[in-house]
Amino acid sequence: MTEKYKIYLTEETKNRLIDDAELFEFFKSDGKVNLNSFLKELIVNYFEQYREDGDELIRSMADDIASVKSLKPKDARDIAGKIIRNYINNREPSSGRSSVITLTVSGESYGIIKIIENNALMESSLSGYLKDMFLSYLSIPRSKREEIIFADTYRSIDRAIDTCRLLSFTSGSGEYHAVVEPYMTVISKDEQCSYLLCRDPRTRKYHSYRISRLSNVFITSDTFVRDESAAEELRARGMRSPHSVMPAVHAVIRMTEHGRQMYKVIVKNRPAVTSVEGDLYHFDWPELQLVDYFKRFGKDAIAVSPRSLRSKLRNYYEVSLEAYGGTVKRDRK
Q1: Most distant CA pair in the chain: distance in Å?
Q2: pLDDT of 272
Q3: pLDDT band at 268, cuts 50/70/90?
Q4: Quick one: fold of 150-243?
């Protein structure tokens, strides 16, 4: 069963929701942000918490109001509900451009919408109820919002850590499959996103994976013995940067003057420099993170070594050029 609903929001609220959908990588096949898919996940994973928090607040306020002896408990609860709806939930600014989104629900999200319509609206419309839910969600710190959107993944990771069970998963795009010893989750200060810190049971190498990019998360029946020295090492690296947990390569990047200025101002996920020789910058950092960081620099940061890093960056620019209809000149470097 599928139904569509009109939800009225301010432009600011809509844009903040789009920002989260983009951060958590809800995309359509054409690369555009899939706000509808994101909102369905938000509704399914946040409804119970939102409802329970709201009921608890109403009960607490009703108890305080009912302490006035002339009021009956039901009247106190009604007053508390009105105060919350009119003064607490109404967080959107009264001014500003309004916007409307069309929410298409099916499956589990359809069921939640029907529960809301049948049991939770009181004096509010469905649009008003969902608007208040979205605003409540946006008032939560971003790292906690990620836990809401990827609730099932977090529960599986926490259980695997608590029971010392190997964890299996694939990337969201299906590029890789991994089976790891999970140790802990940490928050990246730069991104405000959480990472799983773990160890490969075969190679004994440490790895970090962004939790929002994991799919098909499965707790295996295989157990592992928790290594406290490994846990301490992962904790220390995670405090510096989750990215530093991954195996490092020694890389040399030649930067122009403009590239050096970019390196100074682009601080998000910036790799730590090991040494500098003129225009050559040396890094001991995970290769994947070097690719993600320096692919924004273009001709102002050229990978000299290792060959694998140079090849990955070159391939990124070749694919981009071909997408714009350009012709790539191949060489053997």
Answers
A1: 88
A2: 87
A3: confident
A4: SH3 type barrels. (2.30.30)
